[in-house]
Amino acid sequence: MSDRLTFPLSKDIVKKFHLFFILKAKSMDQETLKRQLLDTFKVELDEHVLTLNKGLLRLEQGASGEKFNTLVAELFRAAHSLKGASRTVDILDINLIAHRLEDVLGLIQHQKISLSSQLFDLMFQAVDLIKECMSTKLEGKDFPFDRLNSIVEKLEAATVISDNSQNNAANKDLPEIKIAATNSSDNNQEHRKEQSINIKKQLP
């Protein structure tokens, strides 16, 4: 007779263990899938961010007529794609910023608001924060609410159209856009130069 003691498992316990391992396996699969989705989204986000930065730089340097329309359309599509893709992977911070940026670009596209150095600064800030949100998400952290709320409020404020701006946009063609550097925007101009260098490095 064996000295080893055995404890027969009841059918209920066996079922519970079986269910536990099935759920654990499913949980691991979901986590793996989630990570793969995030990695795929990160690649797409990088492409859209590059498109946005490159397009905004070209727009700021000067554009009119068909060139203007093409650039703004590309920017609008990039923001729209980011909005949809971020919603799919449930990154609501990026979704919110991209949505508000899309609203601004839509108004620019339809010549409802005028471009200015301040508006360019705001749009570049929005794109930078989208990148930061992605990095924060990959680190498993939450993006600071105050920074998110601040950029969203500023983008929303940019979409407020006065009666005068609507009349001006309706009564004349959008002029060629050229933003001259000023002493008060030296830091922003330096940031643009750095962005331009980084973008050129990423281009094929």
UniProtKB/TrEMBL annotation:
Entry's Gene Ontology molecular function annotations: protein kinase activity
Record bears the keyword Phosphoprotein: yes
One record GO biological process: phosphorelay signal transduction system
Entries under SMART domains matching the protein: HPT
Presence of the UniProt keyword Transmembrane helix in the record: no
Highest taxon in the source lineage: Bacteria
Modified residues (Phosphohistidine): 80
N-terminal signal peptide: none
Swiss-Prot/TrEMBL keywords: Phosphoprotein
Region of interest: Disordered: 182-204
Ranges for domain HPt: 30-137
Name under which the protein is recorded: HPt domain-containing protein
The species this protein was found in: Candidatus Magnetoglobus multicellularis str. Araruama
